[in-house]
């Protein structure tokens, strides 16, 4: 049975929530649980805006529970620690991504793949163990089991680190899993948005040769000069595509809009891998012959487990990888959502929770 947080919890909290499928966010008072023996309670300082926040606020996937406090790219400072917490202390810089719970006993959990646990609990909009619905980072405070909390190294700025907890791990994990992290490999990145620009940064830091593939010729200068990509292909230019046939070892496809896969498969070498990260509204059309001819693979990926997420954050710290962000105030969030829908952000909105979220009466 799903229960309201105030029926289960006693600690007052506040944030911004969507109250219905209009998706409009407004101030919202709610309750969190007290700090348990294995919990980390932290003050939220920054929270990134993921496109899935927009989907959930508008109930576009049909599973939203209102009132809904979005946010799963969350960083802050630990304010209270449970008596059995081992990895954190008060004052530590901490982060929480897309999940706050799992069963801890299935094969996926045992193998550090909590993100694929059938009972994985999302950071917001999901029933927690106690029956209350989880609330996300568009709020002043969170209480999370230490297993699902990551440590943020001192040299990473908190604001530009927040989106790494979703967008960053979403591109880092497939680069590692599909073996596209070896120096000298040629890796394509489709789309130059929130995911795509981070895919370029991580792939370059891994030593690969990166080609950005985009429908927008105007993004060429950004890709090559600002992000450090090695080459740029306009996906609608048949001459460019023809010249690049069979040149890539793998492709990370970050685009959620409907688009043809056949030209991308043509860019792959034999045994090449096309990894899908976006979720289009309609199923892809797939021709089998291009897969057979060259023994090519199409795969998918979704965030990463907690061990890998910490590994990603540590890798980002070592290589000075940060998200390109636009910082906004909490009361700008609805405008930001409208702009996000139009693709008008470079490349991730981050809400300055610590300085601009004010309690409602």
TrEMBL record:
It holds the Pfam family ADH_N. It comes from the Eukaryota. Residues 23-351 form the Enoyl reductase (ER) domain. It catalyses: D-mannitol + NAD(+) = D-mannose + NADH + H(+); (E)-cinnamyl alcohol + NADP(+) = (E)-cinnamaldehyde + NADPH + H(+). Its cofactor is Zn(2+). Keywords: Lignin biosynthesis, Metal-binding, NADP, Oxidoreductase, Zinc. PROSITE patterns: ADH_ZINC (PS00059). GO terms for molecular function: cinnamyl-alcohol dehydrogenase activity; mannitol dehydrogenase activity; zinc ion binding. GO terms for biological process: lignin biosynthetic process. Pathway: Aromatic compound metabolism; phenylpropanoid biosynthesis. Oxidizes mannitol to mannose. Provides the initial step by which translocated mannitol is committed to central metabolism and, by regulating mannitol pool size, is important in regulating salt tolerance at the cellular level. Belongs to the zinc-containing alcohol dehydrogenase family. Homodimer. This is Enoyl reductase (ER) domain-containing protein. It comes from Gossypium stocksii.
